[in-house]
Structure formats: structure tokens, C-alpha cells
Amino acid sequence: MLDNFIYSLNATIPVFLVIVLGWALGRAKMLNAGFVEVANKLTYSVTLPVMLFLKSPRWMPPLCWICRFWPLVFGDDCLHLAHLGRGALVYER
Asked: Averaged over 9-33, what is the pLDDT?
């Protein structure tokens, strides 16, 4: 049980430390709105997709799984892309 707790802390503490660091740098006026906007675009448009691609598993599911579940996966992907597109349109207004 303690192993699970330590594993969870190792996964979440770096995220919270980055959040606290960003908050502290913002309070100290070391980050302005222009930098934050450019950093967000860089993170979400470049580094996050690259990380997801590099960290994706190299394992390929058996063909019977692909044939059985592809409509579900394809539909889920379409819904996520539509939701992201709608969010981008609302954000740009």
C-alpha cells in the first residue's frame, strides 16, 4: 500500500512543483502575458504531441482486436477532434 502511495507522489509532485513555480514567477513579475501565450502554444502544439508520440507503446494489438474495436476508437477520436475544434473556435472569439 505504501508503494502505491509513493508511486503516486512520484507521478504528481513534479506537476504540482511546476504549477507552484509558474505561480511564483508570475507573482514576481518575471513572466508576462506574452510569454505565457507563446509558451502555451509551444507546449500544446509542439512538445505535447511529440512527447505523446515518443512515449506511445511500440506494442501492436492483434488484428482481431483492431477489427473489433476500430469503430469505437475512430468514433472516439472524431468526438475528441470535434470538441477540440469547438473549443478553439470559442477561445478565438
From this structure: 91
